[in-house]
Design a protein that fits this description.
Length: 105
């Protein structure tokens, strides 16, 4: 999957809540849905989108499925954001350098 898919999936606030709930470890859909303002089937649909984007792994455990954050999917997104951050800092450094040259003249 690509970082674009991850960004699109995480654009939804409910999906970000789901990711936050999974930060402490794998959970079944019932535990993820507990206390949310949407139905379990709606949570399942959001889990499918996150899984399809490569952000979650799904592991069968008896008669239920455990959802967990997929390190590879998060790593691709992190690499993209790191590069974006590096580019922003480089642009800032160039602008500061150009400004300093203008001030010296």
């Amino acid at each position: 999957m690509t970082y674009q898919n991850a960004i699109t999936a995480l654009a939804d606030p409910t999906r970000r809540v789901i990711i936050d709930r999974l930060r402490s470890g794998p959970l079944p859909v019932g535990a993820i849905a507990d206390g949310m303002d949407i139905s379990r089937p709606a949570v399942s649909q959001h889990l499918r989108v996150l899984s399809d984007a490569g952000l979650l792994t799904v592991t069968p455990s008896g008669n239920r499925r455990l959802y967990a954050i997929a390190p590879d999917g998060i790593d691709e997104l992190r690499k993209y954001l790191d590069n974006l951050w590096d580019d922003a800092f480089a642009a800032f450094a160039r602008a500061a350098h150009d400004q300093a040259k203008r001030i010296k003249k």
